[in-house]
Amino acid sequence: MGETIVASENVKISVIVPARNEARTIARVVREARKIAAQTEVIVVCNGSTDQTAALAAKAGAKVIQISVSLGHDVGRAIGASYAQGEILLFIDGDFVIRAHTLRQYTNLVAQGNDLVLNAYPGFQKGSRIHSTAVAKRFLNSVLGCPHLEGSSMTTVPHAMNRKALTAIGIQMLAVPPKAQASAIMQGLRVARAVSINTARVNRKRPRRKERVMDLVLGDHLEAIGLVIAQRGSRAGKTDFSRHRELLEQDTKDHFRWVYRMEQREAVSVGGD
Amino acid sequence: MAAKKKRKRTMKKHRFRQSSSSRAKRKLKKRLRRQRPVRHSAARRKKARSRGTRKPRQGMKSSSTLPASILQRNKQHLSVIVSVYNEQHSIGPILDQVQLLQPKEIIVVENGSTDRTLEICLSKKVTCFSYPFPVGHDVGRAIGAKEATGDVLLFLDGDIVFSPKQLLPFVRACYRGVDIALNNVNPLYKKSSKLDAVSIAKLFLNRAIGKKHLRYASLTAIPHAMTRNAVEQIGAQHLAVPPKAQCIAGLAGLKMKAVHTVNVFTTNKIRQSNANENNVVQDMIIGDHVEAIQWFQAVSGERGTFTDNIRNRQMINGDLVSQSL
Protein backbone atom coordinates (compact mmCIF):
# COMPACT_ATOMS: atom_id res chain seq x y z
CA MET A 1 0.00 0.00 0.00
CA GLY A 2 1.42 3.34 -0.95
CA GLU A 3 0.40 6.91 -0.86
CA THR A 4 0.86 9.28 -3.72
CA ILE A 5 0.70 12.92 -2.78
CA VAL A 6 0.64 15.67 -5.34
CA ALA A 7 2.09 18.77 -3.72
CA SER A 8 -0.52 21.37 -2.85
CA GLU A 9 0.26 24.40 -0.73
CA ASN A 10 -2.23 26.57 1.19
CA VAL A 11 -5.22 24.46 0.24
CA LYS A 12 -8.55 25.98 0.98
CA ILE A 13 -10.98 23.49 -0.50
CA SER A 14 -10.66 19.73 -0.15
CA VAL A 15 -12.70 17.55 -2.43
CA ILE A 16 -13.06 13.99 -1.22
CA VAL A 17 -13.79 11.30 -3.75
CA PRO A 18 -14.12 7.68 -2.66
CA ALA A 19 -13.59 5.47 -5.69
CA ARG A 20 -13.59 1.77 -6.43
CA ASN A 21 -12.98 0.68 -10.00
CA GLU A 22 -14.03 3.98 -11.50
CA ALA A 23 -11.38 4.18 -14.25
CA ARG A 24 -14.09 5.19 -16.70
CA THR A 25 -14.97 8.45 -14.99
CA ILE A 26 -12.37 9.26 -12.34
CA ALA A 27 -10.09 11.45 -14.48
CA ARG A 28 -12.97 13.69 -15.57
CA VAL A 29 -14.33 13.84 -12.00
CA VAL A 30 -10.95 14.97 -10.70
CA ARG A 31 -10.42 17.53 -13.47
CA GLU A 32 -13.82 19.13 -12.85
CA ALA A 33 -13.25 19.19 -9.09
CA ARG A 34 -9.89 20.92 -9.50
CA LYS A 35 -11.56 23.73 -11.41
CA ILE A 36 -13.68 24.80 -8.41
CA ALA A 37 -11.14 27.28 -7.04
CA ALA A 38 -7.51 28.19 -7.36
CA GLN A 39 -6.65 26.35 -4.18
CA THR A 40 -8.35 23.01 -4.42
CA GLU A 41 -7.01 19.68 -3.37
CA VAL A 42 -8.72 16.57 -4.62
CA ILE A 43 -8.32 13.49 -2.46
CA VAL A 44 -9.23 10.23 -4.12
CA VAL A 45 -9.69 7.38 -1.68
CA CYS A 46 -9.04 4.49 -4.00
CA ASN A 47 -10.17 1.31 -2.27
CA GLY A 48 -10.32 -2.27 -3.47
CA SER A 49 -9.71 -1.24 -7.06
CA THR A 50 -8.47 -3.72 -9.63
CA ASP A 51 -8.25 -1.27 -12.51
CA GLN A 52 -6.35 1.90 -13.34
CA THR A 53 -8.37 4.19 -11.03
CA ALA A 54 -5.44 5.23 -8.82
CA ALA A 55 -3.05 5.94 -11.68
CA LEU A 56 -5.62 7.89 -13.67
CA ALA A 57 -6.60 9.95 -10.63
CA ALA A 58 -2.97 10.78 -9.85
CA LYS A 59 -2.34 11.72 -13.46
CA ALA A 60 -5.36 14.05 -13.38
CA GLY A 61 -3.81 15.80 -10.40
CA ALA A 62 -5.38 14.24 -7.30
CA LYS A 63 -3.87 13.12 -4.03
CA VAL A 64 -4.47 9.40 -4.01
CA ILE A 65 -4.89 7.28 -0.93
CA GLN A 66 -4.69 3.66 -1.89
CA ILE A 67 -6.29 1.00 0.22
CA SER A 68 -6.20 -2.58 -0.97
CA VAL A 69 -9.40 -3.72 0.70
CA SER A 70 -12.82 -2.50 -0.31
CA LEU A 71 -14.18 -0.01 2.22
CA GLY A 72 -17.81 -0.20 1.28
CA HIS A 73 -20.23 2.66 1.58
CA ASP A 74 -19.33 6.00 3.15
CA VAL A 75 -16.21 4.75 4.96
CA GLY A 76 -14.00 6.24 2.25
CA ARG A 77 -15.42 9.66 3.04
CA ALA A 78 -14.32 9.44 6.64
CA ILE A 79 -10.84 8.33 5.67
CA GLY A 80 -10.55 10.99 2.98
CA ALA A 81 -11.71 13.64 5.46
CA SER A 82 -8.96 12.65 7.88
CA TYR A 83 -6.40 13.59 5.20
CA ALA A 84 -8.07 16.81 4.16
CA GLN A 85 -6.27 20.06 4.86
CA GLY A 86 -8.80 22.50 3.41
CA GLU A 87 -11.11 24.77 5.30
CA ILE A 88 -14.03 23.60 3.20
CA LEU A 89 -14.66 19.94 2.53
CA LEU A 90 -16.70 18.80 -0.43
CA PHE A 91 -17.79 15.19 -0.75
CA ILE A 92 -18.56 13.71 -4.15
CA ASP A 93 -18.57 10.25 -5.74
CA GLY A 94 -16.20 8.86 -8.32
CA ASP A 95 -18.82 7.40 -10.60
CA PHE A 96 -20.41 10.46 -12.13
CA VAL A 97 -19.12 13.82 -13.26
CA ILE A 98 -20.57 17.01 -11.85
CA ARG A 99 -19.55 20.28 -13.47
CA ALA A 100 -17.27 22.60 -11.55
CA HIS A 101 -19.73 25.49 -11.63
CA THR A 102 -22.35 23.28 -9.97
CA LEU A 103 -19.93 22.11 -7.31
CA ARG A 104 -18.92 25.69 -6.73
CA GLN A 105 -22.45 26.48 -5.54
CA TYR A 106 -21.92 24.06 -2.67
CA THR A 107 -18.56 25.45 -1.60
CA ASN A 108 -19.80 29.02 -2.02
CA LEU A 109 -22.72 28.38 0.33
CA VAL A 110 -20.27 27.12 2.93
CA ALA A 111 -18.04 30.16 2.37
CA GLN A 112 -21.11 32.33 2.94
CA GLY A 113 -21.42 31.04 6.48
CA ASN A 114 -23.35 27.79 6.32
CA ASP A 115 -21.79 24.90 8.18
CA LEU A 116 -23.31 22.06 6.19
CA VAL A 117 -24.67 22.22 2.66
CA LEU A 118 -26.75 19.35 1.29
CA ASN A 119 -28.00 18.30 -2.11
CA ALA A 120 -31.60 19.46 -2.43
CA TYR A 121 -32.58 16.26 -4.26
CA PRO A 122 -35.50 14.89 -2.21
CA GLY A 123 -35.09 11.25 -3.22
CA PHE A 124 -36.86 9.20 -5.83
CA GLN A 125 -40.58 9.78 -6.09
CA LYS A 126 -42.96 9.58 -8.97
CA GLY A 127 -46.74 9.60 -9.02
CA SER A 128 -47.90 7.85 -5.88
CA ARG A 129 -44.62 6.02 -5.46
CA ILE A 130 -41.88 7.06 -3.11
CA HIS A 131 -38.64 5.21 -2.52
CA SER A 132 -38.13 3.76 0.95
CA THR A 133 -34.82 5.56 1.36
CA ALA A 134 -36.51 8.88 0.58
CA VAL A 135 -39.10 8.06 3.25
CA ALA A 136 -36.36 7.39 5.79
CA LYS A 137 -34.59 10.66 4.95
CA ARG A 138 -37.75 12.71 5.28
CA PHE A 139 -38.72 11.01 8.50
CA LEU A 140 -35.35 11.70 10.08
CA ASN A 141 -35.54 15.36 9.11
CA SER A 142 -39.02 15.71 10.58
CA VAL A 143 -37.93 13.98 13.79
CA LEU A 144 -35.06 16.45 13.96
CA GLY A 145 -37.54 19.29 13.57
CA CYS A 146 -36.23 20.30 10.14
CA PRO A 147 -39.09 19.49 7.77
CA HIS A 148 -37.86 22.24 5.42
CA LEU A 149 -34.90 20.02 4.55
CA GLU A 150 -37.41 17.54 3.05
CA GLY A 151 -35.46 14.54 1.83
CA SER A 152 -32.02 16.15 1.78
CA SER A 153 -29.46 13.91 3.35
CA MET A 154 -25.76 13.40 3.86
CA THR A 155 -26.32 9.94 2.41
CA THR A 156 -26.51 11.70 -0.94
CA VAL A 157 -23.58 13.44 -2.60
CA PRO A 158 -22.58 16.15 -3.15
CA HIS A 159 -22.48 17.76 0.24
CA ALA A 160 -20.05 20.24 1.69
CA MET A 161 -19.07 21.35 5.16
CA ASN A 162 -16.60 23.57 6.91
CA ARG A 163 -13.95 22.49 9.35
CA LYS A 164 -16.10 23.59 12.29
CA ALA A 165 -18.79 21.13 11.24
CA LEU A 166 -16.26 18.37 10.69
CA THR A 167 -14.88 18.81 14.19
CA ALA A 168 -18.34 19.02 15.75
CA ILE A 169 -19.59 15.91 13.98
CA GLY A 170 -16.39 13.90 14.31
CA ILE A 171 -14.63 12.22 11.43
CA GLN A 172 -15.66 8.68 12.31
CA MET A 173 -19.31 9.65 12.32
CA LEU A 174 -19.06 10.46 8.59
CA ALA A 175 -19.10 6.75 7.88
CA VAL A 176 -22.77 6.65 8.91
CA PRO A 177 -24.08 9.77 7.14
CA PRO A 178 -27.60 10.05 8.64
CA LYS A 179 -26.06 9.87 12.09
CA ALA A 180 -23.62 12.63 11.15
CA GLN A 181 -26.53 14.71 9.91
CA ALA A 182 -28.53 14.16 13.08
CA SER A 183 -25.52 15.12 15.15
CA ALA A 184 -24.94 18.28 13.09
CA ILE A 185 -28.54 19.42 13.40
CA MET A 186 -28.74 18.65 17.12
CA GLN A 187 -25.58 20.67 17.71
CA GLY A 188 -27.27 23.62 16.07
CA LEU A 189 -25.05 23.86 13.01
CA ARG A 190 -26.36 25.92 10.13
CA VAL A 191 -27.63 23.55 7.48
CA ALA A 192 -28.56 24.74 3.99
CA ARG A 193 -29.56 23.16 0.70
CA ALA A 194 -27.90 23.81 -2.63
CA VAL A 195 -28.99 22.90 -6.15
CA SER A 196 -30.78 19.63 -6.66
CA ILE A 197 -28.77 16.95 -8.41
CA ASN A 198 -30.65 13.79 -9.17
CA THR A 199 -28.17 11.16 -8.07
CA ALA A 200 -30.62 8.32 -8.69
CA ARG A 201 -30.43 9.10 -12.39
CA VAL A 202 -26.68 9.54 -12.74
CA ASN A 203 -25.49 6.86 -10.32
CA ARG A 204 -23.98 3.81 -11.95
CA LYS A 205 -26.54 1.03 -11.75
CA ARG A 206 -25.45 -1.97 -9.76
CA PRO A 207 -28.58 -4.11 -9.76
CA ARG A 208 -27.34 -6.84 -7.48
CA ARG A 209 -26.48 -4.37 -4.74
CA LYS A 210 -29.80 -2.57 -4.75
CA GLU A 211 -31.44 -4.48 -1.91
CA ARG A 212 -28.35 -4.39 0.27
CA VAL A 213 -27.87 -0.68 -0.25
CA MET A 214 -31.51 -0.14 0.75
CA ASP A 215 -30.92 -2.13 3.95
CA LEU A 216 -27.79 -0.12 4.62
CA VAL A 217 -29.55 3.21 4.24
CA LEU A 218 -32.64 2.23 6.27
CA GLY A 219 -30.48 0.76 9.04
CA ASP A 220 -28.39 3.94 9.06
CA HIS A 221 -31.51 6.01 9.61
CA LEU A 222 -32.62 3.77 12.45
CA GLU A 223 -29.19 4.27 14.01
CA ALA A 224 -29.56 8.03 13.54
CA ILE A 225 -32.95 7.99 15.24
CA GLY A 226 -31.34 6.01 18.03
CA LEU A 227 -28.85 8.85 18.42
CA VAL A 228 -31.66 11.41 18.56
CA ILE A 229 -33.44 9.34 21.21
CA ALA A 230 -30.22 9.06 23.22
CA GLN A 231 -29.80 12.83 23.24
CA ARG A 232 -33.34 14.13 23.30
CA GLY A 233 -35.25 11.44 25.16
CA SER A 234 -37.61 8.67 24.14
CA ARG A 235 -39.97 10.93 22.17
CA ALA A 236 -37.15 12.98 20.61
CA GLY A 237 -38.42 16.00 22.49
CA LYS A 238 -41.87 15.88 20.87
CA THR A 239 -44.98 16.82 22.81
CA ASP A 240 -47.13 14.18 24.46
CA PHE A 241 -50.04 16.62 24.37
CA SER A 242 -51.22 16.11 27.95
CA ARG A 243 -51.65 12.37 27.87
CA HIS A 244 -52.45 11.16 31.36
CA ARG A 245 -50.20 8.16 31.23
CA GLU A 246 -50.50 7.47 34.94
CA LEU A 247 -54.06 6.29 34.25
CA LEU A 248 -52.66 3.48 32.15
CA GLU A 249 -50.60 2.07 34.98
CA GLN A 250 -53.47 2.07 37.48
CA ASP A 251 -56.30 -0.38 37.68
CA THR A 252 -59.26 1.30 36.01
CA LYS A 253 -61.30 0.71 39.18
CA ASP A 254 -59.09 3.22 40.96
CA HIS A 255 -59.73 5.97 38.41
CA PHE A 256 -61.54 9.09 39.50
CA ARG A 257 -64.59 8.94 37.26
CA TRP A 258 -68.31 8.32 36.95
CA VAL A 259 -69.56 5.04 35.62
CA TYR A 260 -72.93 4.76 33.92
CA ARG A 261 -73.70 1.12 33.20
CA MET A 262 -76.01 0.23 30.37
CA GLU A 263 -78.20 -1.98 32.57
CA GLN A 264 -78.60 0.06 35.71
CA ARG A 265 -78.79 3.70 34.78
CA GLU A 266 -77.51 5.02 38.04
CA ALA A 267 -74.46 7.08 38.62
CA VAL A 268 -71.78 5.37 40.65
CA SER A 269 -69.11 7.69 41.80
CA VAL A 270 -65.78 6.05 42.33
CA GLY A 271 -63.16 7.93 44.23
CA GLY A 272 -59.57 7.09 43.65
CA ASP A 273 -56.01 8.17 42.87
CA MET B 1 -73.28 -10.36 -42.13
CA ALA B 2 -75.35 -7.72 -40.42
CA ALA B 3 -77.19 -10.37 -38.42
CA LYS B 4 -73.93 -11.88 -37.31
CA LYS B 5 -72.70 -8.52 -36.22
CA LYS B 6 -75.85 -7.87 -34.26
CA ARG B 7 -75.59 -11.22 -32.56
CA LYS B 8 -72.07 -10.51 -31.59
CA ARG B 9 -73.11 -7.23 -30.10
CA THR B 10 -75.86 -8.75 -28.00
CA MET B 11 -73.48 -11.42 -26.83
CA LYS B 12 -71.09 -8.77 -25.79
CA LYS B 13 -73.81 -6.97 -23.93
CA HIS B 14 -74.81 -10.18 -22.26
CA ARG B 15 -71.31 -10.92 -21.17
CA PHE B 16 -70.97 -7.46 -19.79
CA ARG B 17 -74.13 -7.73 -17.77
CA GLN B 18 -73.18 -11.09 -16.35
CA SER B 19 -69.82 -10.14 -14.99
CA SER B 20 -70.32 -6.47 -14.52
CA SER B 21 -69.48 -6.48 -10.83
CA SER B 22 -66.28 -8.45 -11.14
CA ARG B 23 -65.40 -6.45 -14.22
CA ALA B 24 -65.95 -3.23 -12.35
CA LYS B 25 -63.82 -4.52 -9.53
CA ARG B 26 -61.01 -5.39 -11.91
CA LYS B 27 -61.29 -2.01 -13.51
CA LEU B 28 -61.13 -0.30 -10.14
CA LYS B 29 -58.08 -2.29 -9.23
CA LYS B 30 -56.39 -1.30 -12.44
CA ARG B 31 -57.30 2.28 -11.80
CA LEU B 32 -55.90 2.24 -8.30
CA ARG B 33 -52.73 0.69 -9.63
CA ARG B 34 -52.30 3.50 -12.07
CA GLN B 35 -53.34 6.00 -9.45
CA ARG B 36 -54.85 8.44 -11.85
CA PRO B 37 -58.43 8.99 -12.83
CA VAL B 38 -59.67 7.39 -16.01
CA ARG B 39 -60.99 9.91 -18.48
CA HIS B 40 -63.30 8.27 -20.94
CA SER B 41 -63.89 9.51 -24.47
CA ALA B 42 -66.46 12.24 -24.96
CA ALA B 43 -68.83 9.84 -26.68
CA ARG B 44 -68.69 7.38 -23.85
CA ARG B 45 -69.27 10.07 -21.26
CA LYS B 46 -72.30 11.28 -23.20
CA LYS B 47 -73.64 7.74 -23.34
CA ALA B 48 -73.16 7.40 -19.63
CA ARG B 49 -75.10 10.57 -19.03
CA SER B 50 -77.98 9.50 -21.21
CA ARG B 51 -78.12 6.18 -19.39
CA GLY B 52 -78.91 8.14 -16.24
CA THR B 53 -82.09 6.20 -15.46
CA ARG B 54 -80.06 3.50 -13.75
CA LYS B 55 -79.72 4.44 -10.12
CA PRO B 56 -76.52 3.87 -8.19
CA ARG B 57 -76.81 1.26 -5.48
CA GLN B 58 -77.86 2.80 -2.24
CA GLY B 59 -75.72 2.44 0.83
CA MET B 60 -77.24 0.03 3.32
CA LYS B 61 -78.59 2.26 5.99
CA SER B 62 -80.99 0.18 7.97
CA SER B 63 -79.78 -2.78 9.93
CA SER B 64 -82.30 -5.00 8.17
CA THR B 65 -80.08 -5.00 5.09
CA LEU B 66 -76.99 -5.99 7.06
CA PRO B 67 -76.19 -9.70 7.07
CA ALA B 68 -78.13 -11.27 9.92
CA SER B 69 -75.46 -13.86 10.68
CA ILE B 70 -72.93 -11.19 11.53
CA LEU B 71 -75.38 -9.15 13.54
CA GLN B 72 -76.13 -12.28 15.52
CA ARG B 73 -72.44 -12.69 16.16
CA ASN B 74 -72.07 -9.02 17.09
CA LYS B 75 -74.66 -9.43 19.85
CA GLN B 76 -72.39 -11.89 21.59
CA HIS B 77 -68.91 -10.79 20.68
CA LEU B 78 -68.60 -7.16 19.60
CA SER B 79 -67.53 -4.27 21.81
CA VAL B 80 -67.46 -0.82 20.25
CA ILE B 81 -65.19 1.71 21.93
CA VAL B 82 -65.78 5.41 21.35
CA SER B 83 -63.47 7.96 22.93
CA VAL B 84 -65.06 11.37 23.03
CA TYR B 85 -64.20 14.90 24.16
CA ASN B 86 -66.58 17.81 23.49
CA GLU B 87 -68.40 16.35 20.49
CA GLN B 88 -72.03 17.25 21.18
CA HIS B 89 -72.83 17.59 17.46
CA SER B 90 -71.47 14.30 16.21
CA ILE B 91 -71.72 11.89 19.14
CA GLY B 92 -75.48 11.33 18.82
CA PRO B 93 -75.43 10.25 15.17
CA ILE B 94 -72.29 8.18 15.78
CA LEU B 95 -73.93 6.19 18.57
CA ASP B 96 -77.13 5.78 16.53
CA GLN B 97 -75.17 4.36 13.60
CA VAL B 98 -73.09 2.08 15.80
CA GLN B 99 -76.26 0.77 17.44
CA LEU B 100 -77.30 -0.62 14.05
CA LEU B 101 -74.38 -3.05 14.28
CA GLN B 102 -76.21 -4.52 17.29
CA PRO B 103 -73.05 -4.88 19.37
CA LYS B 104 -72.82 -6.60 22.72
CA GLU B 105 -71.85 -3.27 24.25
CA ILE B 106 -70.93 0.26 23.34
CA ILE B 107 -68.31 1.74 25.62
CA VAL B 108 -68.05 5.51 25.60
CA VAL B 109 -65.03 7.02 27.31
CA GLU B 110 -66.17 10.59 27.78
CA ASN B 111 -63.46 12.83 29.12
CA GLY B 112 -63.35 16.48 30.05
CA SER B 113 -66.37 17.52 28.02
CA THR B 114 -67.87 20.87 28.93
CA ASP B 115 -70.78 20.69 26.50
CA ARG B 116 -73.82 18.41 26.23
CA THR B 117 -71.77 15.37 25.17
CA LEU B 118 -72.34 13.38 28.38
CA GLU B 119 -76.05 14.16 28.40
CA ILE B 120 -76.42 12.86 24.84
CA CYS B 121 -74.40 9.73 25.63
CA LEU B 122 -76.63 8.93 28.59
CA SER B 123 -79.73 9.17 26.42
CA LYS B 124 -78.40 6.24 24.37
CA LYS B 125 -77.96 2.58 25.19
CA VAL B 126 -74.31 2.72 26.14
CA THR B 127 -71.93 2.10 29.01
CA CYS B 128 -70.31 5.40 29.74
CA PHE B 129 -67.12 6.09 31.67
CA SER B 130 -66.97 9.78 32.39
CA TYR B 131 -63.71 11.46 33.36
CA PRO B 132 -63.81 15.01 34.72
CA PHE B 133 -60.66 15.97 32.79
CA PRO B 134 -59.33 15.30 29.26
CA VAL B 135 -57.29 12.09 29.52
CA GLY B 136 -55.25 12.89 26.42
CA HIS B 137 -55.00 11.55 22.91
CA ASP B 138 -55.69 7.85 22.46
CA VAL B 139 -55.65 7.23 26.22
CA GLY B 140 -59.43 6.80 26.05
CA ARG B 141 -58.95 3.89 23.67
CA ALA B 142 -56.69 2.12 26.12
CA ILE B 143 -59.16 2.65 28.97
CA GLY B 144 -62.03 1.44 26.80
CA ALA B 145 -60.06 -1.63 25.79
CA LYS B 146 -59.44 -2.48 29.44
CA GLU B 147 -63.18 -2.27 30.18
CA ALA B 148 -64.38 -4.12 27.09
CA THR B 149 -65.82 -7.62 27.54
CA GLY B 150 -66.30 -8.58 23.89
CA ASP B 151 -64.04 -10.76 21.74
CA VAL B 152 -63.72 -8.21 18.97
CA LEU B 153 -63.09 -4.55 19.73
CA LEU B 154 -63.97 -1.83 17.25
CA PHE B 155 -62.38 1.56 17.90
CA LEU B 156 -63.89 4.88 16.86
CA ASP B 157 -63.38 8.55 17.60
CA GLY B 158 -66.08 10.99 18.51
CA ASP B 159 -65.74 13.26 15.49
CA ILE B 160 -66.60 11.26 12.39
CA VAL B 161 -69.89 9.49 11.67
CA PHE B 162 -69.60 6.16 9.88
CA SER B 163 -72.40 4.05 8.49
CA PRO B 164 -72.63 0.45 9.71
CA LYS B 165 -71.77 -0.65 6.20
CA GLN B 166 -68.47 1.17 6.48
CA LEU B 167 -67.70 -0.41 9.83
CA LEU B 168 -68.77 -3.97 9.24
CA PRO B 169 -65.76 -5.06 7.11
CA PHE B 170 -63.42 -4.39 10.04
CA VAL B 171 -65.47 -6.52 12.39
CA ARG B 172 -65.95 -9.23 9.80
CA ALA B 173 -62.22 -9.45 9.15
CA CYS B 174 -61.63 -10.09 12.85
CA TYR B 175 -64.23 -12.87 12.81
CA ARG B 176 -62.35 -14.38 9.89
CA GLY B 177 -58.94 -14.67 11.50
CA VAL B 178 -57.38 -11.23 11.15
CA ASP B 179 -55.98 -10.04 14.48
CA ILE B 180 -55.91 -6.35 13.66
CA ALA B 181 -58.07 -4.91 10.89
CA LEU B 182 -56.85 -1.49 9.77
CA ASN B 183 -58.31 1.22 7.61
CA ASN B 184 -56.84 0.79 4.14
CA VAL B 185 -56.02 4.42 3.44
CA ASN B 186 -53.47 3.49 0.78
CA PRO B 187 -55.66 4.09 -2.30
CA LEU B 188 -56.28 7.61 -1.06
CA TYR B 189 -52.64 8.55 -1.52
CA LYS B 190 -52.23 9.85 -5.03
CA LYS B 191 -49.23 12.15 -4.97
CA SER B 192 -46.04 11.27 -3.17
CA SER B 193 -44.79 14.83 -3.57
CA LYS B 194 -47.57 16.03 -1.28
CA LEU B 195 -46.94 13.62 1.57
CA ASP B 196 -47.16 15.09 5.04
CA ALA B 197 -44.81 14.25 7.89
CA VAL B 198 -47.30 11.94 9.61
CA SER B 199 -47.81 9.80 6.51
CA ILE B 200 -44.05 9.56 6.07
CA ALA B 201 -43.69 8.43 9.68
CA LYS B 202 -46.32 5.70 9.18
CA LEU B 203 -44.62 4.52 6.01
CA PHE B 204 -41.21 4.40 7.68
CA LEU B 205 -42.41 2.54 10.76
CA ASN B 206 -44.20 -0.13 8.73
CA ARG B 207 -41.09 -0.54 6.56
CA ALA B 208 -38.82 -0.79 9.61
CA ILE B 209 -40.86 -3.47 11.36
CA GLY B 210 -41.06 -5.54 8.20
CA LYS B 211 -44.70 -4.75 7.39
CA LYS B 212 -43.98 -2.96 4.15
CA HIS B 213 -47.27 -4.09 2.60
CA LEU B 214 -49.30 -2.11 5.15
CA ARG B 215 -47.82 1.11 3.74
CA TYR B 216 -49.81 3.98 5.26
CA ALA B 217 -52.22 1.82 7.24
CA SER B 218 -51.85 2.58 10.92
CA LEU B 219 -53.49 2.14 14.29
CA THR B 220 -53.30 5.93 14.55
CA ALA B 221 -56.17 6.10 12.07
CA ILE B 222 -59.71 5.03 12.79
CA PRO B 223 -61.74 2.97 12.28
CA HIS B 224 -59.88 -0.16 13.23
CA ALA B 225 -60.82 -3.37 14.97
CA MET B 226 -58.85 -6.00 16.84
CA THR B 227 -59.45 -9.24 18.63
CA ARG B 228 -59.26 -9.63 22.39
CA ASN B 229 -56.28 -11.88 21.87
CA ALA B 230 -54.48 -9.05 20.09
CA VAL B 231 -55.28 -6.61 22.90
CA GLU B 232 -53.90 -9.03 25.46
CA GLN B 233 -50.72 -9.68 23.51
CA ILE B 234 -50.09 -5.99 22.95
CA GLY B 235 -51.17 -4.91 26.42
CA ALA B 236 -54.17 -2.59 26.62
CA GLN B 237 -52.12 0.24 28.13
CA HIS B 238 -49.94 0.40 25.00
CA LEU B 239 -52.96 1.26 22.86
CA ALA B 240 -52.55 4.82 24.15
CA VAL B 241 -49.54 5.15 21.83
CA PRO B 242 -50.92 3.59 18.65
CA PRO B 243 -47.69 3.29 16.62
CA LYS B 244 -46.05 1.53 19.55
CA ALA B 245 -48.99 -0.88 19.74
CA GLN B 246 -48.61 -1.52 16.03
CA CYS B 247 -44.91 -2.17 16.49
CA ILE B 248 -45.54 -4.63 19.32
CA ALA B 249 -48.23 -6.38 17.32
CA GLY B 250 -45.95 -6.65 14.30
CA LEU B 251 -43.15 -8.24 16.27
CA ALA B 252 -45.55 -10.54 18.13
CA GLY B 253 -46.54 -11.93 14.75
CA LEU B 254 -50.15 -10.80 14.94
CA LYS B 255 -51.93 -10.74 11.62
CA MET B 256 -52.47 -7.13 10.60
CA LYS B 257 -54.37 -6.30 7.49
CA ALA B 258 -55.61 -3.16 5.79
CA VAL B 259 -59.08 -4.50 5.10
CA HIS B 260 -61.32 -1.70 3.93
CA THR B 261 -61.05 1.87 2.74
CA VAL B 262 -62.91 4.57 4.61
CA ASN B 263 -61.99 8.10 3.64
CA VAL B 264 -61.13 9.95 6.83
CA PHE B 265 -59.17 12.70 5.11
CA THR B 266 -61.93 14.76 3.57
CA THR B 267 -64.05 14.58 6.70
CA ASN B 268 -61.13 15.22 9.00
CA LYS B 269 -59.52 17.92 6.94
CA ILE B 270 -57.30 20.62 8.27
CA ARG B 271 -59.12 23.86 8.87
CA GLN B 272 -57.28 27.15 9.08
CA SER B 273 -58.76 27.85 12.51
CA ASN B 274 -57.13 24.83 14.08
CA ALA B 275 -54.05 24.60 11.87
CA ASN B 276 -51.85 25.42 14.82
CA GLU B 277 -53.39 22.69 16.91
CA ASN B 278 -52.92 20.35 13.97
CA ASN B 279 -49.23 21.10 13.97
CA VAL B 280 -49.04 20.16 17.64
CA VAL B 281 -50.94 16.95 16.95
CA GLN B 282 -48.59 16.20 14.07
CA ASP B 283 -45.65 16.68 16.41
CA MET B 284 -47.24 14.35 18.91
CA ILE B 285 -47.81 11.63 16.31
CA ILE B 286 -44.20 11.87 15.16
CA GLY B 287 -43.16 11.58 18.79
CA ASP B 288 -45.34 8.46 19.03
CA HIS B 289 -43.49 6.96 16.10
CA VAL B 290 -40.13 7.76 17.66
CA GLU B 291 -41.31 6.08 20.85
CA ALA B 292 -42.33 3.06 18.79
CA ILE B 293 -38.91 2.95 17.19
CA GLN B 294 -37.24 3.14 20.58
CA TRP B 295 -39.21 0.09 21.69
CA PHE B 296 -38.37 -1.64 18.42
CA GLN B 297 -34.66 -0.96 18.81
CA ALA B 298 -34.68 -2.25 22.38
CA VAL B 299 -36.11 -5.54 21.12
CA SER B 300 -34.44 -6.12 17.78
CA GLY B 301 -31.27 -4.06 17.90
CA GLU B 302 -30.28 -0.60 16.80
CA ARG B 303 -30.47 -1.40 13.11
CA GLY B 304 -33.43 -3.77 13.28
CA THR B 305 -33.09 -6.29 10.48
CA PHE B 306 -31.11 -3.95 8.27
CA THR B 307 -27.48 -5.00 8.05
CA ASP B 308 -24.63 -2.93 6.70
CA ASN B 309 -22.21 -5.73 5.92
CA ILE B 310 -21.36 -4.06 2.61
CA ARG B 311 -19.63 -1.45 4.74
CA ASN B 312 -16.20 -2.16 6.15
CA ARG B 313 -16.73 -0.82 9.66
CA GLN B 314 -13.44 -2.01 11.14
CA MET B 315 -11.64 0.53 9.00
CA ILE B 316 -13.11 3.47 10.90
CA ASN B 317 -12.69 2.12 14.40
CA GLY B 318 -9.62 3.29 16.21
CA ASP B 319 -6.88 5.31 14.57
CA LEU B 320 -7.95 6.03 11.02
CA VAL B 321 -4.61 6.91 9.51
CA SER B 322 -2.54 4.07 10.82
CA GLN B 323 -5.18 1.50 9.94
CA SER B 324 -5.86 2.72 6.48
CA LEU B 325 -2.25 2.51 5.38
Description:
Chain A has helices at residues 26-34, 53-59, 75-83, 100-111, 132-143, 163-169, 177-186, 199-202, 210-232, 246-249; strands spanning 3-4, 13-19, 40-47, 63-67, 88-91, 116-118, 125-126, 129-130, 159-162, 191-193, 257-260, 268-270. The radius of gyration of chain A is 24 Å and the shape is elongated. The termini of chain A are far apart. In chain A, the strands form three sheets. In chain A, strands 1-4-3-2-5-9-6-10 form an eight-stranded mixed sheet, with helices on both faces. Mean pLDDT of chain A is 88; it is low at 1-11. Chain A is an alpha/beta fold. Chain A is built from ten helices and twelve strands. Chain B contains 13 helices and seven strands. Chain B has helices at 2-18, 20-34, 42-50, 68-77, 91-99, 117-122, 139-147, 164-175, 197-208, 228-234, 242-251, 275-300, 320-324, and strands at 78-84, 105-111, 127-131, 152-157, 180-183, 224-227, 256-260. Chain B has a seven-stranded mixed sheet with strand order 3-2-1-4-6-5-7, sandwiched between helices. In chain B, helix 5 (91-99) links the parallel strand 1 (78-84) and strand 2. Mean pLDDT of chain B is 83; it is low at 10-18, 52-61 and 269-273. Chains A and B meet through helix 3, strand 7, strand 8, helix 5 and helix 9 of A and strand 3, helix 7, helix 9, helix 12 and helix 13 of B.
